[in-house]
């Protein structure tokens, strides 16, 4: 039977999520990859234990994570039932709905029907009465924004979520959604978006500036660009890597010689900082205090521990930042 470390909070940094009362760890454990039906359940357990023992209180899932869709929630629900459930009140558990989940016209996008039905299914898979954060996973161009936001409001009022978040919204979309949620007095606290040294979209589409101005949190996913910002691909594409497997988001044909040259140049900066490239990539996201938490995935407990070391140094000199921009954006 798992027993959490008594020193689990000693070395973790907790950041306030916007101007809300919610504190999130500076790094969050993501269950997008490596928690599906084809993965090793015991490895999942050990990764969760390692994360929680080191102060990572936030675990992020979605209805469609797997594969198969729903399996990440089922597997994490089993870990809660066996081991971590005793610590539920020390944990932040988030899930989402917005991408395709089940057949027919009601299992996708942003209708009231889909969001409420999906959360009910997620709670069953997780074995929980509520989640701490429930996200709309992506904007729906065909459903009135008022319908989607009112559904989020009613979900909070039902007690099935404590806070709500938005994922993959740009700055303009965020502002429109925030106006509705504010009028409905909904505790909207966080935006989840892709952000890394190679992907600056939230800087370019207004999301980062809008979140700062509206005092909402940001949690960054894919901080390592699906593993590209690591030492995994410096000498080719390993067969067991994400790019080496079919059906993953990182495609082998996108790992060009030019991209690898940039990775190697970034790695030189990381080495000079006393970090691995992965650690520097995580640190870079937290550099200015606007991003609340960095959301990372792992395939083994040792990667969790390595990623935690990113918090040892999140300060950058102007010269380092300029060099990173010159390499990554050039």
Secondary structure layout:
Layout: E1 14-16, E2 23-25, E3 27-30, H1 41-53, E4 58-60, H2 71-82, E5 92-97, H3 112-126, E6 131-136, H4 145-157, E7 161-167, H5 171-183, E8 188-194, H6 201-204, H7 207-214, E9 217-221, H8 257-272, H9 277-285, E10 293-296, H10 301-308, H11 318-329
Parallel strand pairs: 3-4, 3-10, 4-5, 5-6, 6-7, 7-8, 8-9, 9-10
Antiparallel strand pairs: 1-2
Helix pairs in contact: 1-10, 4-5, 5-7, 8-11
What key phrases describe this protein's structure?
single chain, 330 residues, alpha/beta, eight-stranded parallel β-barrel, two-stranded antiparallel sheet, 11 helices, 10 strands, globular
Q: Can you walk me through this structure?
A:
The protein is an alpha/beta fold. It has eleven helices and ten strands. The strands form two sheets. The protein has an eight-stranded parallel barrel with strand order 3-4-5-6-7-8-9-10, surrounded by five helices. Strands 1-2 form a two-stranded antiparallel ribbon. Helix 5 links the parallel strand 7 (161-167) and strand 8 (188-194). Helix 8 (257-272) packs antiparallel against helix 11 (318-329). The longest helix is centred in the C-terminal third of the chain and has 16 residues, at 257-272. The termini are far apart. Residues 240-247 have low confidence and may be disordered.
